[in-house]
Amino acid sequence: MNDLWVFAYGSLMWRPGFEAVEARRARLAGYRRALCVSSHVHRGTRERPGLVLGLDRGGACVGRAFRVDAAKSVETLAYLRERELVTNVYHERHVSLTLDDGRRIGAVAYVVDRGHEQYAGSLNAEEAASRVIGAAGISGVNVDYVLATVEHLRELGIRDHWLEHVARLIKA
Question: For 38-55, what is each residue's pLDDT tens digit?
């Protein structure tokens, strides 16, 4: 078995939870980072759902690619499936990435299922901010999730203008 590459676009970037032998900045074409998943438990409730990140169709997403040693691939995939596929709002996909050193690689990524009940649709920044403000769940306040995400992305040198716009609206 070959080494496993994993594409991360949200909290997996700064809290992967698995051992990687290499981490690189990576670009995924055809998908974008979006607050497109309704959260009824972690960042909201059924009565007041919040929003969390998903990879949705369109555009491009800059994130991180982690290379996992082949000997740890099965263990890592089991961990990721337990973490990412709890409600099946994401599909595990094999995608093609461009790394910051120019290499093109195949990787595993978790893409939102547009047919799932938790898919919130393609929201504009104002709609997303409105959904986030006032939502909270067992993992905390939704506003904190969005602001922390923007801060972590900045620390990694990754700009996401749409998400930064949502954060500005939340703070306003």
Answer: 999 899 999 999 999 999
State whether the Cα torsion 6-9-11-13 is positive or negative.
Answer: positive
Three-state SS for 19? coil
Each residue of 126-155: pLDDT tens digit? Answer: 999 999 999 999 999 999 999 999 999 999
Location of structure tokens 């909201």:
44
List the domain range (segments joined by +) for residue 112: 4-171
Residue 34 near residue 122, CB atoms below 8 Å: yes
Tally of domains within the chain: 1
Q: Output the DSSP codes for 32-73.
A: EEEEEEEESSSS--SSS-EEEEEEEEEEEEEEEEEEE-GGGH
Nearest one of 130, 167, 138, 153 to 10, comparing CA atoms:
153
Neighbour tally for 166: CB within 10 Å: 28
Say what the pLDDT of residue 63 is.
Answer: 97
Mean of the per-residue pLDDT values of the chain: 96
Query: Which CATH number goes with the domain that contains 37?
Result: 3.10.490.10
